[in-house]
Amino acid sequence: MANREACELWIEQRSGDLAEEGKDYEEIGRIVSKEVASIFEAAIKARTIAQRARRSPIINSVTNVTKESNTETITASYKPEESSVTHPPTDRGGAREGAGRRRRYNPYFPRSIEAVKGAHFAISMLKRIPKKDPNRDRELTNVLNWIMESRKGGQYEK
Fold this sequence. Notes:
Distance between the termini: 74 Å
Strand content: under 5%
Radius of gyration: 35 Å
Order of helices and strands: HHHHHH
Helix content: 40-55%
Largest sheet: none
């Protein structure tokens, strides 16, 4: 654990030193990777070290502006332009046609989700009846009769 922490700290400090010398991130990665391999006997890819150097707050705090430089306050006035194009609101929440999250079904043709789920479940159960079952034809006919009676609105009796 101590070896890992020492290696991480050393990589951070060494990357910061090389950044102050003006080296770019890829070069920092190559140099530090070789040094880590020889000092800590660990293989770390140069690309990994270069990416870490890009994210490091120590390296990114390095600046080329001296402390004695005269800093003027720059004020910029930003005024967004008024758009002459107006889009009518859509039924999906966005301002443009087609904007927003897509619906999974057509909202203008509502359907009972429970009925659809039940139908899919019933079909999956019927598919499980083995083809060699001697009662298969009789039971499928029984299901078909139930469907026909249910569509007429009558009560099915076995």
